[in-house]
Amino acid sequence: MESTLKELMDQASSRLMDIKGLHEERIKILQQLSSLQNMLKNVKCISSSQAYQLVRDQIEKSKSEVFECQALFEKLQVEKDNLLWRERELNVKSDIADVFRRSSAVVDSRISDLGIEIQKQIEERKMIEAKLEEASREPG
Predict the structure, then answer these.
(1) Where do the domains of the chain lie?
(2) 52 Cβ contact list (under 8 Å, min separation 6)
(3) What is the mean pLDDT of residues 116-134?
(4) pLDDT in tens, 76-99
(5) What are the C-alpha distances in Å from 58 to residues 17, 48, 53, 54, 79?
(6) 13: which residues sit within 8 A by CB, 6+ positions away?
(7) How far is 21 from 46, CA to CA, in rounded Å?
(8) 46 CB contacts (<8 Å, ≥6 apart)?
(9) Is 138 helix (H, G, I), strand (E, B) or coil?
(10) What does pTM read for this prediction?
(11) pLDDT score of 140 more than 80
């Protein structure tokens, strides 16, 4: 019977130690819970403060401005691309106009040369006609 009593006492002592350990663990968990609740109160206090609200509103306003600037930037980028295409198109047209001017200058020069050649031929013909007429008047 003494051995049973000793065994029961040992069991009770072991269970008491388990309960004591669990109680200490419960106290630690409750302390952590209290700490987390205090932190949550601090976060709620900060997030409901006027300064926090002002900063949050300013951030939202800044985000909106950033989106507007991005949209404007994209619009300007498209406009820039369009201007580049128009510039290239105008350069091509200018090059074509230069080619036409140069060809026109060549044609004008050729016309002038041909005009001079025609004038020479006319003068030569007149000279030949004059010689023929003179030769036909000579006796013999």
Answers:
(1) 2-100
(2) 46
(3) 95
(4) 999 999 999 999 999 999 999 999
(5) 58, 15, 8, 6, 31
(6) none
(7) 37
(8) 52
(9) coil
(10) 0.47
(11) no
